[in-house]
């Protein structure tokens, strides 16, 4: 399993598209737009901090979904079939994929955090930075499962567009790009039910020095369970086909 | 016994891909599975590798289930649709296979046997068709499996690569390992296999050494195996359906 993880990590590092979408995209967005709302208070934080966490989450979710749904290509190309005739158990392939996907959450959080620290002189205690990175990493579990559900459930041509659509919908409506505070009331209600908003909330609360709240854990837990069921179903269906 | 297939059938809808197949392969044998398109070669191989369960009958590898043999690292396979993923190099996949199997071969030996020594650092998505096929062979071989299964292994290789490939296969079998390959290339089966099994419509229509297969088809020694093959697999001739 370690050998396969090493193999996949090497591939990930060599893929520049991922870096572009998950790191460069959110950093550039932050640098350009974070000044606009700089005087406001959002999600109980100074706006530059709240926007930083929103965009870090945006990059993290992009990376995690991309890695998961890329399974679709590996399935279609026959690579997963090839792995099945080696001693590597199929469940370890899935575990490595999920873990790897979640790891891609870390670079965008660090990169956007660095941009925010430089541009707006954001000054959080080290402990809060550490809690922020840790929670923004662990909080990607539902998105890793969603990515795998797409990757195992759909053909490559469809998977790419579905990933993009799902990602855009979840991140925009979840208030990762434009803060949900500016949404009309009904839309804000919807945002609060989405995993993206609750995922960012883990970050917002840790930046404010608070522990995760019951509401976001409940909402994230429910989405995690739902995506896990779909991912398991898609996985079983994909292996039963041939 | 390396492979023992008993009464195995598999249908896809109305198509009977494999029809009551019986087949035993001894250890150390190089066996060719020959047959026209749709004869059931790939389906038979899938079942031998535990990728697809048979509808009826049993498949045993080394007297256990195919899944157990695969899990124990006794089987290496080069599948027809087993493409690689982009972003990895030739060396990456060889090292991956070596790490997954209990008794791997030496990396340099694998690379040289597969004719990839100068290409170790090349990314798999930058390989030509023939090179990619050699890389897939390297992946199947690197773990040092007792049973090497090759589904149409040499289709995209040029003449020189093909010759080097078959030399490697023969020397691997000479070490006591078993090799099963499927092919359309009759002369390859003729030159490189100890035993040829001809499939047509999911059944064995001939089984033996190249010479025995010629006799069975009623063609003289010295006549190319192509004639024998056509005679055996033509559904309109009586030899094509063995009861």
Automatic annotation (TrEMBL), chain A:
Keyword field: Antibiotic resistance, Membrane, Transmembrane, Transmembrane helix
Pfam families with a match to the protein in the record: ABC2_membrane
Organism domain of life: Bacteria
Chain ranges of the ABC-2 type transporter transmembrane domain: 3-197
InterPro entries with a match to the protein in the record: ABC2_TM (IPR013525), ABC_2_transport (IPR000412), Nod_factor_ABC_transporter (IPR051784)
Membrane topology of the entry: Multi-pass membrane protein
Residue stretches spanning the membrane: 18-39, 45-72, 93-117, 129-150, 162-183, 217-235
Location within or outside the cell: Membrane
Major subcellular site: membrane
Record flagged with keyword Transmembrane helix: yes
Database matches in PANTHER family: NODULATION PROTEIN J
Name of protein: ABC transporter permease
TrEMBL record, chain B:
Limits of the ABC transporter domain: 3-226
Top-rank taxon: Bacteria
CDD domains linked: ABC_DR_subfamily_A
Localization: Cell membrane
PROSITE patterns per the UniProt record, alphabetical: ABC_TRANSPORTER_2
Pfam families per record: ABC_tran
Molecular function terms, GO-annotated: ATP binding
InterPro entries named in the record: AAA+_ATPase (IPR003593), ABC_transporter-like_ATP-bd (IPR003439), ABC_transporter_ATP-binding (IPR050763), P-loop_NTPase (IPR027417)
Keywords of this entry: Antibiotic resistance, ATP-binding, Nucleotide-binding, Transport
Main location class: membrane
Membrane topology: Peripheral membrane protein
UniProt-recorded name of the protein: ABC transporter ATP-binding protein
Organism listed in the record: Paractinoplanes ovalisporus
